[in-house]
Structure formats: structure tokens, C-alpha cells
Amino acid sequence: MPHSHRASSLKQSNKSHKSGKASKRSINRQQGGKIQNRVGVKKRGLTGAASKAKADRMHMAKQRREASKDKLWQQRRVQGRLNVRNADSAIVPRVVGIVSLSDREFELEKIVKDFLVDSADKKIGADENSSAVTAMFSKYKKEGNVTFLSNTTAFRSLYKIEGTNDLNDEDASVQAALDLARVCDVIVFLLDGNDTNNNSNAVPITGMSIGDGSSTRTSTTHVQQDFDHLISSRGDRVLSAIKAQGLPTPITVLVNFEGGEDEETMSLNSCQSLKSIRRSALKKKMELKKYLSRFATTEFGENAGKVMEIDIPEESDEDEMKDDTAKNMLIVGKSRKMLPDALIGKGEDPYPTRAAFIRTICTMSASPPKWVSEMPRPFVLSNNNALGEGFSYDKTSQELRITGFIRGKMPFDVNSLVHVPCVGTFGVKQILKSNSPTLQRRKGKINADDGVSDILATCDVNEREPIEMFANPDALEGEQNLIGFDDENYGYDDDGVVEEKQDDNFARPAGWNDYQSAWLDAIKGDDDDFSDDGIDHGELAAELNKKKDKAEITGMEMDAEDDKRISAEERQALLNQRKKDHDEELEFPDEVQVDEDEKASERFARYRSLKSFRKSYWDPKENLPETYASVFHFGSFRATQSDIMADMRDIMQAAEAKFNEAIEKSKGSKDGDADIGNMSDDSEEDLLEGCVESGTYVTLVLEGVSAEAVSRISSTALLVAVGLLPHENKVSVLHMGLTETTQCDELGPNDMPVKSKDNIIFRCGWRTWQGRPVFSQNNLNSDKHKFERFMPTGGSFFASSVFGPVTYTPCPVLAFRRTNTGNTRFIALGSMIGADVDRIVVKRIVLTGYPTRVHKRHATVKYMFYNPDDVKWFKPAEIVTKHGLQGNIIDSVGDHGTMKCLFNAPIKQHDTVCLNLYKRIYPKYSPVEYTDENGEVVKKNIVVL
């Protein structure tokens, strides 16, 4: 009977193909990145984890919106801070810095500043000799208060004083621009549009690249070839330095001068039609705008590359244009610089480009560099001296008074130290309340009393940090130069006496610890190194600590010695051979040749051998130099910084709570609520004791300011007083992560390479000083870092260790070097790593020898040493080869330094035997001599300006 299939409940049922749904990938491909509006489409309900995830996304989006609103509201609070004491609104002006990148500097900046200030409803300090002009644009209310600073008048006089030759004009312009960028909310870079036809004087800028990373001067792109000369070499230096330090909100502005150029073009080309002249001029202008857009995007980023233009008329043609409506409507080749009278409304600016620029700087979101705005360091920018309120000095009481607004998000603590760039660090005696020029009362006018009316805070000397930078501990009193150390980290017994481990096997030199004495295991049986009783009585320690004679100083190490021990002829010879030594260091790194008439054991007595550079232990407190006794040691720099930042956050939160309480109290007084006055507690009051809130117009009274320090200040300059955090006035060993500059001040073929312990000027945040650093590699997997004899080039990152004032991170670092001609070169840029005295920088030298007779793992090595005593001295050390073998010295052969060695594998005849020796390297001070008030020459290790 044939088989037949019968259906049952066990019949297989396959899943049908889901043709009604599309994959997420296909849906996203169809949408093209757009979100379709599904109006009228029935939404499917989400259950379980999907609905929860959607709710979380909605909450996160709401939190981001609220955070953005709070940030904007906080900025507006700082701009218009409510003064609770007298119910006045002290408006903090926005600071706008003007920097010219073209050849014309002073003239271009002055013309633009005067043109912008001319449209203001009220001008404060608009004088020919004024360093800052505050303009009030009533159309924008609180946002319409702007202080204009130019690079040539704000801080230039601090570096280019009359009668002195400290810096040339170009170097002074770079340093002044760096000072200007620290205090500005908006920085405006000016480009002279009148130089578009001056291609004969064009100078190519090899360091600047736009778009594809190549030089802007190319032969294929017409736009780049025509407009490269708009940025001068000085402008390129200024721009590179400001970018390395940190940019405020940037704006690139093209300045067009109307009038003469177009009329001359029309007269020379009278045979052409007006339409063709206009077309060619507009085409050229479009190419210029395209070039500037690419320049701003490349230099400042896509989101910060704002480009604008300002059309400035000639003064002689301004009155004529007001009567000629047709001429006002169109200028050949330029945008409209002035509207006709029929289109000008009441209170409107007749110049459209100027009105657009002012509207932008008044309403845009702007802030100083991040390291200024985010760090809890308040600062005061002095007012214009033309108003008689900038700064004043009393020679009798040695008090310096600086008047201005408190800026930053932190309240100003009267018990903190204050640093004034180019002047010094001082203590605050009092903070006095002053009436701001922008002060506006709610009812009535400002009082006639413009002087000091109240004392906001007085310093408590017992609470203030000491002004001394160096440590001078008294050992008899138990004082130490330690910060953040705990006693439990040390081996103290119950009676407070330091426990010392005794080793009865053999005596060791004075000052040696256990692992140092391991050297004596291999040589303690030699009678040559010990006395007859087998005990060292200090002979070995005296030999190791013996200073080198002048004749023993080699050319490679000559600059590491004291300057007094090197004559002018020797230093000149060293400078002449610096480049040759640099080339040899690149070809044969760390290799040192021993002469036949010298002993390696004497020349390298301070060096030691390490079995493993990464794993071998090195005591960071061993045999420290005398200079380390006067600097401060941190137990943990990161922990100390975290504690201080936490305290600063508590103060900021207390200040914000107090401000909110004052707002609610002012509202409650109107509504009849009387219970809001008890909102703050005693802890907040304790935190804010001696603090003055940000946005207050005050006068800082600094005490202990010498006349010699004030003599460096020009009467027309602006001063900045920045509050220092705890421990920031103490000197320690700072470590910075740097890299060589590539786009600014490239070293030419005749310039000398930068060597370790050269005099270098460090510009670290708000402070500047001179030091002699040591360069090293920044090893992440080792507690020891290899010393670099020369500053690494080619874009390599390296660490620089130098004596300097403690600075908390993040903080930018710029390194400058004085050349033989007196100019300053921008050589390196980077950021602060921290302060750590225990960071070990180790210098390595390599002694090389060559195998003459080889038998499997044995070899006879020559030309490393030239006497058997050296072989015996370095016998405990391990040797390596360039092919990766390891070995040891077995014995000395003969009387000429030949030695027999054993390796862990058969050695090749063409291999090279190396002996690696190490020594710890320390930075040095760069003393500065100056004459005090009494005419005496004073020498200081560090002068912070």
C-alpha cells in the first residue's frame, strides 16, 4: 500500500518572511540623516526597557538644556552683577582686544578703535593717551558695555620702556599680545585690506599652512598667491604665540579703506566701462573673503572661524558722502559703507559693517581662555589711567593701589597673595569699594562722591600665606620644607626617633644606604680600596664626592659647570662647537670616548651601573644638592591640588548661594516675605570671610611694593592683579611637557641648538621667570627618566624640569630664548605637568669597546679602558652589546685595559660592547642681579615677573 502523509498537530510551521518591515540600516539610508515628521502616523507603544531608555534620553536632553541655560545665566550674572550693599547695578564691561596681523600695527589699531568707539552713546577714557576706552551702547543695555584694548597701547609699554633697550619692537609686540590675550573676552585680529595690491613687498610665511598643510604661498592657487602678504612675519609670530598660550573668542576682521583706490583705478582704466571695473573689483573681494574664511577655519577651527569686515571711510570724504545719496548707495568694488539719510532710522548706525560688528561683539557668547575662565583665580584689570583711577603708588608707605573690576568666577580673598605681571608678588592690605564709571542706579543719578566710600575687607596677617618663596627650615625647631607629608609614612618608633637598620657585615661610607653599599660586595676584599683593618674610614666617600678640576671639564660638560669657572674664550669655543656636538649626539647618542691618558674610574666616579633601567631602585632622597634644601617638597602634588580645588569649589558654591539669597531677599522685600534672611548658615559665612564677590568694582591696596619694582611700570600701561592659590608662591621643581615650535621662530642654519641648562625664559600662565632646565624623556612605565643633552627636535614631546614657583594645572607654558643678537625666540610650547622634587632625571653615558678575539661566548674586548685599574673598578657592572647580548667582565688582561668578557650567547666579531653608566641630573638656578633702592647689587636665584 503506497505511503501517504497525513497532517497532524506535529506539523512543522516555519516562520514567514518579514517583508512588511525594513531593516534599520535601510531606513537610515532612505532618510539620508534626516528625521521624518511622522504626523498622523499611529505610534506603536513601547514597553519594558525600550520605554525606559526613551525616558532616560528625554531626561538627559532636558538636563543638557538646563545646564546650557544655567551657564548662559551665570555669564550674564558676571556681566551685570547686583551690588547688594547699595542696590546699584555695576556693569562689568566686556573686554575686546584689537591686534593687527598686517605690517601696519599702531596706525591700523588706532583707526579701527576710534572708528568703533565713535558710534558709542557714551565714551569713558576716550583720550589720545588712553590705554583703554570703555564704550556704552545703550541699544544692547548690559551687554553693550565694551572696553576696547589695543596691542600697541595696553601692555606694550611694560616691555618697551623709554630710555631702555630691553626688547625690540617685534619682540615687545609678541609679549604684549600674550598679556592682552589673557584678559580679553574677545580678541579681534585685523587684516589690512588696503594691502591687497602690494604684492611686490610680499614676504612668504613658510610656517603657516592653510587647508592641506602646505605653505600658503603656492603657484597653483591664485587666491593664496595674491593674499599671503596680508599677514606679516610679526603677525605670524603673534598669532602662533597666542594660539600656544590659549585663545579667547577670536574674530578675524578685514579692514577696508574706501576712496582713493577705486578712484585711481577708474582714472587709469577710463577706457573700460564702469560695469567691468565693478565686476573685477567684486571678484577680487570674493577671492579675498574666501581666503580669509579658509585662514580663520584653519587657524581657529570650524566653530571659531568667524570672519567679518569693516569699511572705514576717509575723513575728508565723510561729509561729502552725506550729501551725495547716489554715492552712498554704492562704492565701486566695495560694500556699502554708509546708508543714505532716507534709510537711516533714529538711533541707527549709518555704517552697516560697523553696526554688524558691534552687534556681534555685544551679543555673542565669549569668554577668556579656558585656563583663565575655568581656574579659580580671580583677577583685577586696572582701569584707564586717563581717568586717574588705574593705579597709583605711594613711595612713603610703599603701597600700590590698583582699581578695576574683579573678574573670574571666584571671589577675591583679601588674605591671598597677589601677583602683578612685570612687577612682582605682594600681599593685600585692604580691598576698598569704589564707584564704577559704568555704575547705574535704579533711581536717580550717580552720587557725586566718586572716591572710596567703604572698606570691603581687611587682611589678617596671621591668615595670609608667607611672602617668602624659598624655604628656610630650622632643624632645631623641627621645621621641614615638606607639604602634604604624613608622619606615618616614615619609620618613626614610639619615642619619635628614626629607626635605622644596622648591617654588621661590613662598614659603609657615610651617607650611603643599603642598596648603595651593594657596590662594596664586589670590592670589599681588595686592599687597594680599604685601609689595613678592612674598614673604610671615609676614603671611598671622599673619592666619590671629590669635585672635578677645571682641567678635567670636557667640552661636552663644560656648560654644566658654574659660569665663574669658564672663561669667555672657553665659552666662545663651546658655542662654536655646539652644533658639531649636536650632530654627533644625533649620530652616536650618549657615547663617550675615554682618552688614553685619563682614568675612567676618576672621570666617572659619580656614575653607577643599573641592572635594569626600569626596575632597578633609585632612592629619590639620596645625595640631594644644597639647592634642594631651599625648595618645597610635596608628598603628592595631585592630592594637594585636589584638596585646594575642592576648597575653592566650596567657596564658589557659598558665594553663589549668597548671591541667590540676595536676589530672593530683594524679591521678598517687595512681596512682604521676611523669613528669607535666614537662608545662609554659619559655615557659608565662615568660608566667605574676607572675600569680595566677583563683578565688584574695587581698589586693591598692595603693601610692601618697592620703588625699584614700580620703576618698571610705564604711566600709560595697564596692570593686572591676579590672586594666587595656596602654595603657588613657593619654589619647587616644576616639570613641563613641551614640544618644539614648528610654525614660529624656526631655528636657522646659523643658530645654535638649545642645550640642557641653557638660560631659558619660561612664561607659565600669569608669571614669567628665567631658569636653567634639564630636558628628559617622559617615561610612563618607569620612575626614572632619561636625560636629553639637547632639546629634542622634529616635533618630539619631552619633559623640562626647572626651578620655579608652584603652578597648578591646567596651565600653558611658553619657552623663549635670548639669542646672541638680543632678540627672543619662541622655541617650545606645552603645558604644566606638576611639581615633584622626587622625579628622577638620569643621565646616561655609554662606553664602547670592540671584541678582538672571539670564542663562542667568550671575547677579548679592547679600547673601552686603557688601564687595568679601570677594569677592576667597573668589574661589578653589567655590559651589553648593540646586538642585544648581555654579559659581565671576567678579568683584566695585560696592562693596557684589555679585558676578558663572558656573554649569555655567542658573540659576533663585528658586534660592539657597551657599558651603560648613569648619574642623576638636577636643574640649576639662573641668578639675576639688580640694584636696589640703596644702590647695592642684589643677587636673586629667581625673579618672577
From TrEMBL:
Coiled coil: none annotated. One of its GO terms (cellular component) is nucleus. InterPro entries: AARP2CN, Bms1/Tsr1, BMS1_TSR1_C. Residues 1-72 are annotated as: Disordered. GO terms for biological process: endonucleolytic cleavage of tricistronic rRNA transcript (SSU-rRNA, 5.8S rRNA, LSU-rRNA); maturation of SSU-rRNA from tricistronic rRNA transcript (SSU-rRNA, 5.8S rRNA, LSU-rRNA). Residues 353-438 form the AARP2CN domain. One of its GO terms (molecular function) is U3 snoRNA binding. It holds the Pfam family AARP2CN. It comes from the Eukaryota. SMART domains: AARP2CN, DUF663. Signal peptide: none annotated. Residues 1-27 have a biased composition (Basic residues). Residues 591-921 form the Ribosome biogenesis protein BMS1/TSR1 C-terminal domain. Residues 53-72 have a biased composition (Basic and acidic residues). Belongs to the TRAFAC class translation factor GTPase superfamily. Bms1-like GTPase family. TSR1 subfamily. This is Pre-rRNA-processing protein TSR1. It comes from Chaetoceros tenuissimus.
